[in-house]
From TrEMBL:
Belongs to the CMC family. It holds the Pfam family Cmc1. It is found in: Mitochondrion inner membrane. Required for mitochondrial cytochrome c oxidase (COX) assembly and respiration. GO terms for cellular component: mitochondrial inner membrane. It comes from the Eukaryota. This is COX assembly mitochondrial protein. The keyword Chaperone applies. Keywords: Chaperone, Disulfide bond, Membrane, Mitochondrion, Mitochondrion inner membrane. The keyword Membrane applies.
Length: 86
């Protein structure tokens, strides 16, 4: 059974711009070999990247939450106008 290939998501594209330097640093650390990774030498780079990606996700979620609130307010207003015109 062949696993599905990884498909880049919009998150990857957005986060890449903000966290690219950290991604490159982690990839360079991993390129040093298995022993380097297994001894925990890449942990700091991984933690920094995780924090950066988490912050990007938080920003995206906040933006989406605000957009949904605005959309819901518009929908409520439209329904209110419809109910008043009955």
């Amino acid at each position: 059974m062949v696993p599905f290939p990884h498909q880049p998501t919009s998150l990857t594209k957005l986060a890449r711009a903000a966290c690219e330097a950290l991604m490159v640093a982690l990839e360079e650390c991993h390129a040093k070999g298995f022993m380097w990774k297994s001894m925990g030498m890449c942990n700091e780079a991984k933690e920094e990247l995780t924090a950066c990606l988490r912050m990007e996700r938080y920003k995206r979620q906040s933006k989406n939450r605000n957009n949904v609130a605005d959309s819901n307010a518009k929908i409520r207003q439209i329904w209110k106008e419809i109910d008043e015109n009955k």
